[in-house]
Amino acid sequence: MAHSYHNLGDLQQTINNSIDNFDPVLNEINKNIHENPELGYEEFKAHDNIVSLLREQGFEVTPHAHGLETSFSCSYGNGGRIVAFNVEYDALPGIGHACGHNLIATGSIAAFLGLVAVLKSDPSIQGTALLLGTPAEEGGGGKVKLIDAGAYKNVSACLMTHPFSPPGNVAYGSCMASSKFRATFTGKAAHAAAAPHEGINALDAAVLAYNGTSMLRQQIKPDQRIQGVLLEGGERANIITPKSVLDYNVRGSTLEETKELQKRVVKCFEGAAIATGCSVEFLETNTYADLRPSRAICVAFSEIMKTVAPDHSWTVGEKPEPGAYSTDQGNVSHVCPSFHGVYAIPVKDNAVNHTPGFHDAAGTEEAHRLTILTSKGMAGVGLRLLIDEAFAKEVKEQFDEAQKH
């Protein structure tokens, strides 16, 4: 049976009603994740709670999916195109869900349930909804590992939304590429008072490297970033430090640009090693690609949100609005058409992401309500991808064209 774009209004209402009916369950999982923050690859409670929720709703779930202990996979459908929704649920050390991943998880689960409701209501609709547990977004590169494991193979589109502090909603937005690495300087221990000349100071090397990158910031582009912290710098003041470790994050507008900047940063470290007589070793921890959103999907989401939430504006410009953050959803956007909508939730005292205040904001009822609205939009776009051949073709052609650049 063919489905036209014209009956999407009725089907969208099915989505909306279904998600509203699931709201008590969704609210509970949201609170469970928020109140039990877990770091990347340690999200055992979140994993188990979500798997239990899905099984209680009658779904077959693959826990510990794709070789990751805290990933899961759940699909429903009868072949056709596959629309995936990413579920993030890792927290930040010390400040809990200060990036609102409890809301991201809730929104994607809701969108999946809403799309499945339509598929169940009309078995003639060909297509599959896929819900993926994506651990360790906060620096752990969970989606990168899922890509390598083939989790996004044959996926027609992948959608998720992300809460941010105000001012507003961004459907069509990009973000920066990010390359993270660890540098270890090795020197030689010696008694700092009796025989300092016998030592090689790895802390001096770390300080030189840090200062070198600080000066390098004067000669980089306005949208580029160099950020670093000292993880190890010695244990006793009276011992010449034999080992120091720094963790660095380099960002640029594209992956290629980021890697070029990283080469310049590495030279600062190599120079510090030469100056102090230390050796230096580098370990790449993970690389996040720039986000390449599907404009067609963003436009469709914006149009659906006019009916779902007419009081909220989701404008789509000719070019994506740049975002000063990085995410491994960027990597996903390089392997399949993707959507990473950003929506504002109310905050106190101008709290921004990655602060204790945003953790508090992510746990409010209003943040949950706004998340549920975005889930209805995501499910609606997912449905259109399954039943609107012309739209699905446009999405794929835009993605294929972007891959050439």
Automatic annotation (TrEMBL):
It holds the Pfam family M20_dimer. One of its GO terms (molecular function) is dipeptidase activity. Gene3D superfamilies: 3.30.70.360, Zn peptidases (3.40.630.10). Residues 180-271 form the Peptidase M20 dimerisation domain. Belongs to the peptidase M20A family. PANTHER family: PEPTIDASE M20, XAA-ARG DIPEPTIDASE. This is Peptidase M20 domain-containing protein 2.
